[in-house]
Amino acid sequence: MKWIACSLFVALGLVACAPTSTPRIRVARDLGCTADETTTVRIDERRWRVSGCGRTAIYLCTYPVRDCWREGEIQPAQPAQPPSD
């Protein structure tokens, strides 16, 4: 019984120490996409607009990009406006 408890403790420790996903993967997950289905546009030094799967959101990221936090809510992507003549 002690061996099982010790093995479980070690297994949980390994999972807890596993590296987290990259910001790109986490952001894509927020939008319900894969990273390949998203596009990014830099707004300023630390803010990025990410779009994918019909949704868009703005993220504030550390510099260099190591982690990102969403600013506000995820919004539906705006359809492209045709040029007016």
Structure description:
- By secondary structure, this protein is an alpha+beta fold.
- The chain has a domain at 21-76.
- The protein has two helices and four strands.
- It has a four-stranded antiparallel sheet with strand order 1-2-3-4, with helices on one face.
- Strand 1 (38-42) and strand 2 form a beta hairpin.
- The longest helix is centred in the N-terminal third of the chain and has 15 residues, at 2-16.
- It is globular and about 45 Å long.
- 11% of the residues are buried.
- Mean pLDDT is 76; it is low at 3-20.
Short structural description:
The protein is an alpha+beta fold and 85 residues long. The chain is built from 2 helices and 4 strands.
SSE inventory with pairings:
Blueprint: H1 2-16, H2 23-31, E1 38-42, E2 47-52, E3 55-61, E4 68-76
Antiparallel strand pairs: 1-2, 2-3, 3-4
